[in-house]
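@channel sequence for tomorrow's demo:
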Amino acid sequence: MQKFNKLKSIPAYLPIVNIDTDMIIPKQFLKTIKRTGLGKNLFFEMRYNDQGKEINDFVLNQNPYNESKILIAGKNFGCGSSREHAPWALLDFGITCVISSSYADIFYSNCFKNGILPIIIEEEIIKELSEYANRREEISVDLNEEKIVYGNNEIKFKIDAFKKKCLLEGLDDIALSLKKSEKIESFENDLKNTKPWIFND
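structure tokens (generated this afternoon):
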């Protein structure tokens, strides 16, 4: 997992509430277990028409938003089913930070496990940031300082200390387990000595 520290980008603004995971990545694209290749299908039904052509009015089909690393979204983002493909699709598209006033719990947790920073801020600040998106102006996110900088303004946000550590160090669940490999190996060796029948073929 890539480490997350600081990020600067022109944000893309998607002012739709209750965007569920099926809208983020529809069910027909869930057959793969690979984390790559899903970006082209992100928000599929909003990005493409029935002939498979891009809908020009959709924000992520427009320049410079098609290269945005920050997505500003409506409240309750990521609701619906718990599919991990949703953060995979966002990440594969290039989005590494989502800003919203609220998230579905499972989606929020899945973001941290896949290298995406989900920031929770008040609706009033969302409106201020949306103006920067509309003017195609960059904003900055500093995870270590837990702040968003936009123009001459900055706003603080709060992140759980453990989740913050995982993002800063690029630690997913597998990496966290590997950090304890010595203890795991020691436990297995002790188990072999005290209960050898467990390891018999």
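heads up for whoever presents: The chain has a mean pLDDT of 91.
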